[in-house]
Amino acid sequence: MTSQPETIEGWQAWDAANRAITPTMVGRQMVPVIDRALALTQAGLLGYDVRVVALLLPAIEPGLWAALGKDATSEPEDEDR
Predict the structure, then answer these.
(1) Structure pTM?
(2) Domain range for 36
């Protein structure tokens, strides 16, 4: 991960999001989607501030997709370099 959460609330939102990633079919492709209801339920059960997690979750998913898109378009690394 190139960007780390800078606050405890950010870390909690990131943790809840990671626990709630589910593969979903979009067209013919499987894409990771954050099940927000699951993320919020788990955040509450873990004692996280659910209101803050709810505010931060929408910002996490586009970053996840951007990172995956970047990985999909990057060329494999040559180990001989």
Answers:
(1) 0.72
(2) 8-72
